[in-house]
Amino acid sequence: MNKILMTLALIVAGLYLQAQEVKFGIKGGVNLSSLGEYEYMLNPTEDAQLENQFGAYAGLFSQIYLNNKWGLETGLFFTQLGGREKERDYDENYSVKAKASYLQLPLSVFYAIQLPGKVKLYPSIGVYGAYGLSGKIKASGQVLGTDISQQQDYFGDFAKRFDFGGTAGIQAGLGNFLLGASYDQGVIRVNKQKATWEDNAYNSNFRISVGYLF
Fold this sequence. Notes:
By secondary structure, this protein is mainly beta. The chain has two helices and 13 strands. The strands form two sheets. An eight-stranded antiparallel β-barrel has the order 1-4-5-6-8-11-12-13. Strand 8 and strand 9 form a beta hairpin.
């Protein structure tokens, strides 16, 4: 899987050499991520719906123009992903929270659309590769009278470090400032051990970001 990250890095390096124009910037924002429905830490007949986990997103990026309309955007970002669930009823009282930090390398194709008032839109689509740095996954409470409390190292005990998937989004630019929204969907199973009933975890993430081009 690390070969995919190396391939993306080599593609990006080659694109810089062929670029008509390159702009650099900084970007940050907020993630709202999910791992989906996953058979984890509960019991054989009930899954955890790990979703709606807030996290940070920040890094450096560049826009590589191939002509005056088409270009590619890439960068290197610190991003926090995961999921959480709380349940309280007559036979369940538990919470599960997973949060992990990744180093992410995206590569997207964008098209620049000029609007009135010096505003530009940049719809984009592409792929990303990410490498897990650290994290925790923790459960507490009871399910059907059984204590499920435990804590694990995210990548040591639970997850694979490498993630890969697709990304799509749109940014609005005014001068040097950018405001964007994007969605990432992982295609590689996150959990190391495949779940018995096929309820495996996959990273998905909705992001709002702001950026500045130098």
